[in-house]
Specification:
Length: 324
């Protein structure tokens, strides 16, 4: 059963009812943080692969296709595991709301924005998700301890992303202001999704991911058929490969790992993987797109790792250091 206080359709809990947290989590071990690193690896491929896919596939068709490819991949694994998707309306309403704020809407915004914004600028802006998650947790939900060390970790992590990408990239952020604002709004949506996602902890992570992706892919399919006329497109082999790779790694495996990390590590720590995506994403951008590596990469990596370390310190070790 879902935890009390969740209304059909993903409505928020009553004001007097705090957002439910998961049952007491086991002591975090290296396997939990290995999952966090794997999640960062899956999601860091998003931006360079999107650039490749958008070369010959429009945004709506691209997002719908990758979602349906991801669902097909997970559906096969679910059948092999003997698991089935739920049939009750309440579960699908929850899946639908989570997919809208965690994938469909933000992915559309970022994919559209990447038509105008370079991959390096996108990485800088998208890395702010942990900042927004921290601020929302500290100021509104308070479902996890918001410690001073986590605040410092958020600041270090954001500074590290800026250093890795380089100041030259930051100077160019004003040229496509509307696209850049869209990316920032998408990161706020991602931050909200990590908090709402805690309500889905009673479902198997693979079931949540599969159900959400099926809803997202089918939701955009009519728009793709009407607007993009996909039968008239001539995607390149590289674009098709990018779509399939994003479906399997970024969407299917990425979302499954995302819900596993939420259950094991909580909201703030799960969001810290956004900083780990920076060095991985930069490396993939160099490999796949031929982008230049900033000379100050080493300093940026130190700041990023310091930020991740601070954001992942268990709350029980920081009693007395919470922000009020």
């Amino acid at each position: 059963m879902l935890k009390q206080g969740v209304e059909a359709g993903g409505a928020t809990a009553p004001a007097e009812t705090p957002i439910p947290s998961t049952s007491p989590r086991p002591v975090r071990g290296w396997r939990d943080y290995a999952l966090l690193l794997a999640l960062a690896g899956c999601w860091s491929s998003t931006y360079p692969l999107t650039k490749i896919g958008l070369g010959s596939i429009p945004p709506i068709t691209f997002i719908s296709a990758r979602s349906l490819v991801a669902f097909a991949f997970l559906f096969v694994i679910l059948r092999l595991r003997g698991l089935r998707l739920p049939t009750d309306l309440k579960a699908w309403k929850l899946f639908a709301f989570q997919q809208l704020i965690n994938s469909t809407v933000p992915f559309l915004m970022i994919t559209w924005a990447q038509l105008y914004v370079p991959a390096s600028n996108t990485v800088v802006l998208a890395s702010t998700t942990p900042i927004f998650a921290f601020l929302i947790t500290w100021a509104i939900t308070r479902h996890e301890p918001a410690t001073l060390l986590k605040l410092l970790g958020a600041i270090f992590g954001l500074a590290g992303t800026a250093v890795i990408v380089g100041l030259d990239a930051l100077h160019g952020l004003g040229t496509e202001i509307f696209a850049e604002i869209a990316i920032l709004l998408a990161t706020i949506s991602f931050a909200c999704a990590t908090i709402f996602g805690l309500r889905l902890s009673d479902y198997d992570p693979m079931v949540v991911a599969a159900g959400s992706l099926l809803f997202g892919g089918l939701l955009l399919l009519p728009a793709s058929l009407i607007i993009d006329h996909p039968w008239t497109l001539h995607p390149t082999p590289e674009a098709i490969a990018a779509t399939v790779a994003m479906g399997i790694f970024s969407s299917a495996l990425g979302l499954m790992l995302f819900y596993m990390c939420l259950t094991r590590l909580g909201t703030l720590t799960t969001n810290a993987q956004g900083y780990l995506r920076i060095p991985i994403g930069v490396g993939l951008s160099v490999l796949l797109l031929g982008e230049t590596v900033p000379s100050n990469l080493a300093l940026g990596l130190v700041l990023v790792m310091a930020g991740v370390a601070a954001m992942t310190v268990p709350a029980e070790r920081l009693k007395g250091f919470r922000l009020r």
